[in-house]
Amino acid sequence: MLSLELPVLDVSQGDRLSRDAYRADFRERVWDDEGHDSWKLERQQHFQEPGSDSWKAFSQGDWEGALRLIEQRRDGLLQYMGEAAKRNFSLYRVRVVEEPIVPYLHWELHLLRLRAECGERIRVVGPEHIKGFEESGPLPELVSLGGRTLYKVVYDSRGISDGAVRFVDPDVLTRWEEFIEGLYEAGEEMSSYFERKVAPLPPPTAAE
């Protein structure tokens, strides 16, 4: 286990946002402060993403179509990352991956490889890195924006996005960004992890 201290995250101290309110709030704040990096932590191994055409193809068993649709996002991601570079901030992501890799995560790791190729800084950590941090439950799904906002992303029982809890306390934000950064420093670059663990896998057979 890493020598990190797990911060406290009291949802009663945040503002609960519906899915639509979260998306609107995110769009409003994403470019607020230049020079402040964004940090993201993904822990769950399975989600459903009905808003993604690629995920829909994957869930219907069309693996080749899913991969084509992922690749079609390249230009948009390059444009987005170019805008981030102009505003002098980077996007960092830590993805927890348990093995054997489940079908959903197999699909997502293809998308994350593309994001990394377009400039997002993504690393993978395994359960051994977070052992001891989950005595009270799984780590939260988190994203920080602009050095001013932290969202705990909420999902329903099916793994579909259900909004978020927003925190604006600087102490809460700083502690969680430092925690995620510690995991990031211990992680493996997405490109090397993908080549070692994902590229050799056969296509997933179901969106389980």
Automatic annotation (TrEMBL):
One matching Pfam family is DUF6879
* Protein known as: DUF6879 domain-containing protein
So which domain of life are we looking at? Bacteria
Chain ranges of the DUF6879 domain: 28-194
UniProt xrefs under InterPro entries: DUF6879
Organism classification: Bacteria, Bacillati, Actinomycetota, Actinomycetes, Kitasatosporales
